[in-house]
Structure formats: structure tokens, C-alpha cells
Amino acid sequence: MALGRLSDTTSKGVITAMKSIFVRHGIPDIVISDNGPQYASEEFRSFPESWEFTHVTSSPGHAQSNGQAERTVQTVKQLLKRSQNDAGDPYIALVEYRNTPLESVGLSPAQMLMGRRLKTKLPESTSLLTPERALNVHKQLKAKQAKQKKYYDQHAKPLPELHKGENVRMHFGDKWKPAVVLEKHIQPRSYVVSTSESRMLRRNRRHLRQTAESMFPPTAAESNVDVDMNCEKTPSVDKVKSHTQSLAATLSSHSCNPSTLAQPYRTRSGRLVKAPLRYNV
């Protein structure tokens, strides 16, 4: 775990902090982050190319897809809070954490990274500070993760895949809004969908529900819709334009044609609902 203090959260500040970590530990193959605006700028997009690593973003609104980083942030916050409450030095707390053995492998993070323990304020034998090669650590960590997966899967089941053009309900705040699947995203269990406001969003499969509705009722445009794609692979401009025009024409016909509004539609439970008759006057 590497910890650094940022003077600001701009792309430039984040890139500088990441470079500082890279020169100490080396350039990683893959960097996983959330979908913050500092990771979507043109300045940051050129950073992985120049330093030759792959940047992957987690599913928007689904922190569990980046669970390892989220858990580390929680641990750091607890260390800083306890250190502040005890009027102690947060850096000493961080050293002690790095020197504490993990239950699954019996080695501390420092031992797995550098092959030795860190010298702290506590008295330690010189032999404990001598580098030693850690064996079978990766195998033990994999066994621990497999055990966690086994217990998690006892109360979970894989969701069926969605297909292009399928009508779904997308979780948005405390509501489930209508949407249409455009394509499967390059990241696992993620899809690119289009809402009734012709907005394209990337969402995790967990936030999308299949529906038996054959036709969605028209909805008024909302200005606070979350526009968060951050896709490594996005549809072509012609494809987006064609779909947007088609969807807009469909919604326009539903909102302006009284006979179309009067047509019934089915809800997710299969109940037949007759839309009210409205005129644009």
C-alpha cells in the first residue's frame, strides 16, 4: 500500500503522484481506477500511452468492481482516524501496518514486497531485518481468494447476459429507468445502454434488469442525468447518431400522437397498463 498527499485532484496532480509511486516500485502492467473526471481528461489519456501501461476503469456506480482499492482506502481512513484520535503520528501507524503479518500467508506486506521486515520503534533482532525470499506467497493468496469466492458464491448466482436491442430497466438513484442495450462493454459484466433521453451510459449488469415490457412509455427529459461513459471502447459516431435519431423519432411519435399514447403496454410483472390520452396543445 502506497500513500501520498495530493495538493489538488486535477489530472496533473494525480499524474505526478502516480509517477512518484512508479519510480519507487516500477511501472505496473495495469492501473485500475474509478471514473473520476481526472481520469477522463485528454492529459491523463496520453499518460498510459507514454508510460506503456493499460488503464482500466471500474463500473460506474458499482464500487464492488474495484473492491480491493475500496477496501484499502477504508483501511487507510481507519488508520488516519485512530492516529488522529490518539494524537499520534500517522506515518508510524502506516509503518506498523506494513509490518503486521497477514493471517492468510503469515507474512507482512513489507516482507512480501521487500523480503524483510521494517525497522520500527519496537526493539527487533537484526536477523529479522535480513532479507529472505518469500516462497509460495502467490499460491497462498490465490487459495485465500478461492475460499472467499466459494463462500460468496453460496449466496450469489450469475445473471444472464443481455443482448443488443433488449429493453431493460436501469437503476438510477432510487428509481429504475427504461433503457435499451446498445452493446456489451469491453470490461466484464458491463454494458453500454441508451436511455429514453438519448443518453449513452455504461452500467454494470447488476444495475440492469430484464423487463417484459414491449414498449416503454415516453418520459420527460431530465437535466440531471448522469453522463458517465469513460469507455475504452465506444460505439462509432455513425452508430450513435443513427440510434439517437431513431430513438428520438420513436419518442417523438409517442409523445405527439394521441393514438399511440392510447396503446397499452406491459410492465415488468406482465401487467397490462393503458397509458393516459394526452394532447400537446
Q: Beta-strand percentage?
A: 15-25%
Distance linking N and C termini: 62 Å
Topology as H/E string?
HEHEHHHHEEEEEHHEE
What's the multimeric state?
single chain
GO molecular function: nucleic acid binding
Domain Integrase catalytic: 1-139
InterPro entries: Integrase_cat-core (IPR001584), Retrovirus_Pol_polyprotein (IPR050951), RNaseH-like_sf (IPR012337), RNaseH_sf (IPR036397)
Pfam family, one: rve
Descriptive keywords:
five-stranded antiparallel beta sheet, SH3 type barrels, 2 domains, elongated, 8 helices, alpha+beta
Give an account of the 3D structure.
The chain folds into 2 domains: 11-153, 2-Layer Sandwich (Nucleotidyltransferase, domain 5); 167-274, SH3 type barrels, CATH 2.30.30. The model is unreliable at 217-237 and 253-261 (pLDDT under 50). By secondary structure, it is α+β, with helices and mostly antiparallel strands. The protein is elongated, with a radius of gyration of 25 Å. The chain has a 5-stranded antiparallel beta sheet with strand order 6-5-4-3-7, with no helix packed on it. It has a two-stranded parallel sheet with strand order 1-2. A two-stranded antiparallel sheet has the order 8-9. The protein starts with 10 loop residues before the first helix and ends in a 7-residue tail after the last strand. It is built from 8 helices and 9 strands. It has helices at residues 11-25, 42-51, 67-85, 90-98, 109-114, 137-153, 237-256, 258-261, and strands spanning 30-33, 54-57, 167-172, 175-184, 190-195, 200-204, 208-210, 264-266, 272-274. One of its GO terms (molecular function) is nucleic acid binding. Residues 1-139 form the Integrase catalytic domain. It holds the Pfam family rve. This is Integrase catalytic domain-containing protein.
